[in-house]
Amino acid sequence: MKTTLLTLLPALALPLFAAEPNTLSDQEKKDGFVLLFDGKTLDGWRNYKKEQVNPKWTVADGAITLLSKGAGDLITTKQFADFELRVEFKIAADGNSGIMWHVSEKFGAPYQSGPEYQILDSFAKTGFQAEVAKGNMAGAFYDIIPVKAEISKPAGEWNEGVIRIVGSKITLSINGKVTADVDSTTDEFKAMLAKSKFAKWDHFNKETTGHICFQDHGNPVSFRSIRIKEIK
Fold it and tell me: Which run of H or E residues covers position 192?
């Protein structure tokens, strides 16, 4: 298992940003990526355990944007097994959010089943200092593998995140820097899990398919250029 922060894996060696937001490059089209967001509507998305989208989730300036707390978590209507997700995101100052995968609606909240790609103002001076101290910065495998702040952009700037899931193998990156490259069946991973807040969570990271989820953590956050390739 490799957890070197600045290792660049060939599978994740991509331009940091698409030429135009909410479009696919010619290579992405060739590789089989599709857009999960058309840049204009919330078609293909709904709230967790709901059929509609809370109006506090909106489309603003070509991005899915959380306006204020109380919107609830936003999930894809479709479920995914193995995939590579590419997404641009930006967080408000002192803000916190996340992207979860393999989320099941069998439980009370998305995080009970879905592991999380952390989104945070990694340079926060007042907000979420406990997360900062633990290394739960933007791009981290939340509460499993810490990262350093300098690989993320400041609050209000766009970052490029990648989540690649193939069976039990999880690879995460931010701005071209790999932050996690793990196999969740290994003893080494199990040891890290045992030290995390999820150690005794019966349903955490157990699902092999599920929804992708954007977290309402109460702070403004935006997502755009949401591209996914299903891996068969």
Answer: helix 187-194
Q: Is 40 exposed, middle or buried (0-12, 13-18, 19+ CB in 10 A)?
A: exposed
For 181-200, the pLDDT digits (tens) are: 999 999 999 999 999 999 99
Q: How far is CA 46 from CA 21, 34, 113, 208, 213, in A?
A: 22, 18, 18, 21, 10
Would you tell me how many other CB atoms lie within 10 Å of the CB of residue 231?
14
- The full DSSP string for 129-178 is HHHHHHT--TTSBTTTB---GGGSPPTTS-EEEEEEEETTEEEEEETTEE
Helix (H) or strand (E) holding 71: none
Distance, in Å, from the CA atom of 26 to the CA atom of 109, rounded to the nearest integer, reads: 37
Which two three-digit tokens encode residue 22? 């909410």
Based on the number of CB atoms within 10 Å of its own CB, is 73 exposed (0-12), middle (13-18) or buried (19 or more)? buried
- 102 phi/psi in degrees, rounded to 5: 55, 40
pLDDT tens digits, 136-166: 999 999 999 999 999 999 999 999 999 999 9
| Nearest residue to 219 via CA among 144, 142, 118 | 118
Q: Is the pTM of this model over 0.90?
A: yes
Rounded-to-integer distance, Cα 32 and Cα 28, Å:
6
* Bridge partners of residue 214, in order along the sequence: 74, 99
Domains and CATH numbers, the chain: 10-230 (2.60.120.560)
Q: Tokens representing 21? A: 């937001």
